[in-house]
Structures are given as structure tokens and as C-alpha cells.
Amino acid sequence: MILGIHHATFITTDLVRSRAFYEGVLGLQADVKRPAMSFDGLWYDVGTNQQIHLMLLPDPEAGLQRPQHGGRDRHVALSVSGLAKLMSRLDAAKISYTVSQSGRRALFCRDPDQNALEFIEVAV
Fold first, then answer.
1. Reported confidence tier of residue 28, pLDDT bands at 50, 70, 90
2. Can you give the residue range of the structural domain that contains 109?
3. What CATH number is attached to the domain comprising 92?
4. Separation of first and last alpha carbons in the chain
5. Span 30-54, pLDDT tens digits
6. Which positions ≥6 away from 104 have C-beta within 8 Å?
7. Phi, psi (5° rounding) for residue 98?
8. 3-state class (DSSP) for residue 62
9. Is 4 left (phi over 0), alpha (psi -120 to 50) or beta?
10. Does a structural domain hold residue 1?
11. Measured between alpha carbons, how far is 59 from 28 in angstroms, rounded to an integer?
12. Residues 86-124 as b or e (16 or more Cβ within 10 Å = b)
């Protein structure tokens, strides 16, 4: 029986640039307790027993055209407590985003490697 999603993995070609986004813009902190692997990367805790894993590897989809709206592309949806605050952080970092076309309190953006992320506002 499936119990949940443990982690989502994204490929990055520039770990420094990705850290600036995930740590500087989104405010995540790297999990330094994770063991080293055969390639560079980072883990971020995003909830109880949930993580984002960045793997520093060549982009197997280099040159692929992604849809402008992340909701029309494969993506990971993350719960957030304050969508307005996230929008302010994205605006300050000059990162474009689109709001959910369904009318929900949600937005989509892309990380520096064009991975699509959805952020859905939930009550806490």
C-alpha cells in the first residue's frame, strides 16, 4: 500500500545556481545529515518525512521546449502557508510565475533548470 511521497528528485546542471533558488528564494535549508552519493547533490526537507533531492547531473532533456504554464507540464505540488509572501519573494528575485488556471490559490514557477513547481496555499 502506498503511504505517501517520500521525495521528488530534480536534475540540476548548476548546484550553486539551484541553491540560490531553493535556499535564497524559497527559504529551504539543505539537509546535511544525508550520506554522500556517487554524484553531487543536495536534499531539502519540505515536510514531515518529505524531501526534494537535487542531483547534479547533465540535463538529459537539454533543448526540450517546456510549456510556459507549469500546470501543463510535469510538476511537483508543494503546500505553502502564505502564497502572497511567496509571490513577493519570487517578484523580488525576478522569477516569473503563473497563477493556477483552476481558480485555486496556487501558482506555478520553474526552478533555474526549468523544473516546474506548483505551490498551493493551505490553511494552517
1. very high
2. 7-58+67-121
3. 3.10.180.10
4. 28
5. 998 877 778 899 999 998 889 999 9
6. 120
7. -125, 145
8. coil
9. left
10. no
11. 23
12. beeebeeeeeebeebeeeeebbbbbbbbebbbbbebeee
